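Quick illustration, no need to memorize.
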Amino acid sequence: MYFVRYSDIINVKKLKKYSFVLFVLGFVSSLSAQIGGEATYQFMTLPSSSRVSALANTSIAVWDHDLNLSLSNPSLLDSSMSQNLALSYADYIADINYGTAAYSYHIDNIGTFAVAINYMHYGDFIKAEANGLITGDFSASDYAFNMIYAKALMPNLQIGVNIKFLYSDYYQYYSSGIAFDAGLTYHNDQKKNSLALVVSNLGHQIKPYREGNYESLPFDVQLAFAQRLNHAPFRFLVSLHHLHNWKLAYESPLDDNASLVAGEEKAKKSTFDQVADESIRHLNLGVELIPVKNFYLRAGYNFQRMKEMVIADKFGMVGFSFGSEIRLYKFRVSYSRAVYHVAGATNTFSISSNLGEFF
């Protein structure tokens, strides 16, 4: 049971532990690395909607009253989203698919609440004995039940928390856990910019897949900035992820073995190249174009995905993502396509609406 190296690509299998609470922000830098292949419940790192996917996970600072974004940053949930319903579906790698459903409600003088469910279905598998005798089939899935709360601390400053109850079903292997996200967002409507800090997936595996074998959760600390131009229909976004862990690069021992077999000495990177390579892995970029009212075009670039999933001499569009959205009547309908590997990409569809507008 293994993970593909990049945390977005999940190959049904084992998963890992850790613990989180907003108060721990003071010492997040002391936490160990949590990247793809080193933590369980990796499905929580996947984009929650087509907008998040199209913008390459840079959307945690987008202050645009979009319920879908609150699953990435709970402090983006605000009173204008009361009675909003949001649905998303992603056609992932092979026959794997995942989706999200969320609903929000505002209570005066208390704050805004939302509930959501994320699921990931890994497809159907053939069950067989060691001698090859087929005895049936089974499926595997992951689930996360979200309870989100957000409140304005000041007119331009919002805080939010998301409590996630996790459940994993891999035929004879079951696991449950709890995780927390916390976000802080500052938005300046006059200057049309916003800044966000998010700590995500701090938690603990309550029941491990195997007795006594507790695993880590995919902990992350992100910082993002969004700026919409005053006299042009663009919004630019930049985000940094895994700020608690500088080293994201992975050097495979297979590369060393290949060099030895070829009788060559492995080329060593200069200090500058090493620093530049590590720095860029933390960076994601995104842009939104609003050519006309109620229509969006989006694109993003994920450097870590490109670094880890690209094939030498065949870069293709790995790391790129793009999408669009149109607002019709009382609905927001959007689509995105993200290229994870030259062998394939994933398509995501989302729709949302304010149910209160129908009554």
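The longest strand covers residues 134-154.
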